[in-house]
Amino acid sequence: MIKINDLNKNIINAEYAVRGPIVIKAQELESQGKKIIYCNIGNPQALKQKPLTYIRQALALLEYPELLRNKETSEHFPKDIAERVKEIHKRYPIGTGAYSQSAGVPFIREAIAEFIRSRDGIETNKDRIILTDGASKGVHAVISALIKDNKDGILIPIPQYPLYSATLTLYGGQQIGYYLDEDNSWQLNEEILNNNIEKAIKKGIKPVGIAVINPGNPTGAVLSYDNIKMIINFSKRYNLAILADEVYQENVYPEDLEFYSFAKVMSDMGEKDITLFSFHSVSKGFLGECGHRGGYMEVRNIPEDVFAQFIKLQSISLCSNLSGQFVTYFMVLPPAEGDESHELYIKERDGILNDLKKKAEILGTGLNNIKGLSVRIPQGAMYAFVKLDLPHKKGVDISKMDESERLEYDSKRDSDYCMALLEETGICVVPGSGFGQLPGTLHFRTTFLPPKDEIEELVKKIELFHIDYVKKLINE
Prior knowledge:
- This protein folds into two domains: 4-49 and 346-475, Aspartate Aminotransferase, domain 1 (Alpha-Beta Complex); 106-332, Type I PLP-dependent aspartate aminotransferase-like (Major domain) (Aspartate Aminotransferase, domain 2, 3-Layer(aba) Sandwich).
- Helices cover 45% and strands 13% of the residues.
- It has helices at 9-13, 21-31, 53-63, 66-69, 71-74, 79-91, 106-120, 134-146, 163-170, 190-202, 225-237, 262-269, 304-316, 322-332, 342-368, 403-425, 452-475, and strands at 37-38, 129-132, 152-158, 174-179, 206-213, 241-245, 276-281, 295-300, 373-374, 383-388, 427-428, 430-431, 442-447.
- The chain is built from 17 helices and 13 strands.
- It is an alpha/beta fold.
- 43% of the residues are buried.
- The strands form three sheets. It has a seven-stranded mixed β-sheet, sandwiched between helices.
- The radius of gyration is 23 Å and the shape is globular.
C-alpha cells in the first residue's frame, strides 16, 4: 500500500487555498443541511448566473447534428446559429468526439487570431496560438517549460491566485513574490519589483519570468497602460518572459477604465525581444463556462524550435477537449449585428456585466461601512480583497515575534476569522493568507457572484458577525 511518504513531496507541499480546509468544512456543513453561500471561487453558473443562450444552442446543434436534420427541431434555433454550426460540420466533419490537432482546430485558432487583431489592432499569427483546457493548463505548460531546476524562479504577485504558487511548487521552482501596491489601486510598483528581484538574485535564484494578472485576482484591479509599459521595460531589463493572465478582460466596470492587453502595449512599444505568453478563458468574462474548460494561450517573440517544444508538450495530452475548443470559438466569434440571435446575445451579455458592476458596488460600499473592514471597490474581475482590522487577544505581544512567527500568527488569525464566519453565517470566503499579503495585514477574498439579494444579505450577515467576533476577541 502506498503511504504519504511515498508521494512526490512537491505534491504534498502544493497548496490551493480556494479549495482548502474552509471549503471542505463548507461542504461538510452543507451535507448536514446548512445553507452555504460559496464566495470562495469564481464559478459563476454555480452561483445562479444563467448560461448564454447562444453558447448552449450552438453546442446543442454541434454535439447532436440530428437536431439540424429534423425540420421540427431545427425551427426552434435561430437561423444564424444553425448556419454557423452547419459550416462547422462541413469544416470539421469528424465531430467533437474525435481528437483534433495538438494545438487545436486550425479554423478556431484563426478565429482567435482575428479576435486579437480586432481587439488590439495588431498583427497576430494563428500558428502561435494553442487551445488549452482553460487558462490553467496553459499556465502549467509555461511554468513546466521555464523551470529547469530548483534555482529557477518566477515573480508572482502578492496577493496572487494560488494557481501560480501551487504550480511552481509542483515543478520545483522558486517563488519570487512582489507586493502589489494596495494604496495605489493594487498597481505594480517598480521599486518593489526591483528590490525583490535583486534580493532573489543575491540568494542564488535565477529569475526566468514574471506572472501578471490583469484584471486582478484577488484584487479586482485594472492595470493602467503606463503600468503595463513599466512592467514590459522591467522584464526586458532582466530578460524575463511575461505570463499575462488576462482571463477577466471583459470584466472592467468603471466607464473611465479600459483593459489593455500586454500584446497591444508591447506592439505599441515596438518590443520584439521579450517572450510573451497571454492566457484567456471561457470560464470568466460574461460566459462563466467553467465546466467546459476552454481557453487559449497566445505566444509572441519565440523562435520556431522553442515553440515546437510547447506543441510537443501539448501533444503529450493529445489535445484540449473539443467542446471547450468550440466554446472558445463561440466566445471569440459572437453573433454579428443583423443576425437573428444578436439582440438576445447583447441583452444577456450586458445584463450579466451590468449586474456584476452593481454587485461590486453593493459589496464594496456595504463592507466599507463596517468598522474594521475596508476594501477598494473592485474595478474588474469578480473578487474583492477585503482588509481586516482585528484587535489582538489579551496577553499577545507581537513585538516579541520574529518574521516567521508573525506570519504564522497572522495566518491563523485570518483563517480563524473565515472559519468562524462560515460556521456562524454559512458564508464561505478565503483567508488572505491563502493568496499572500503584506506582513502585519489581514484580508479575506470574496466573490461578488451570488445574486444581488444574496450579496445584500451577505453584507448584513458579515456586519453582525464582525461586531460580535471583535467583542469576543476583546473579552477573551
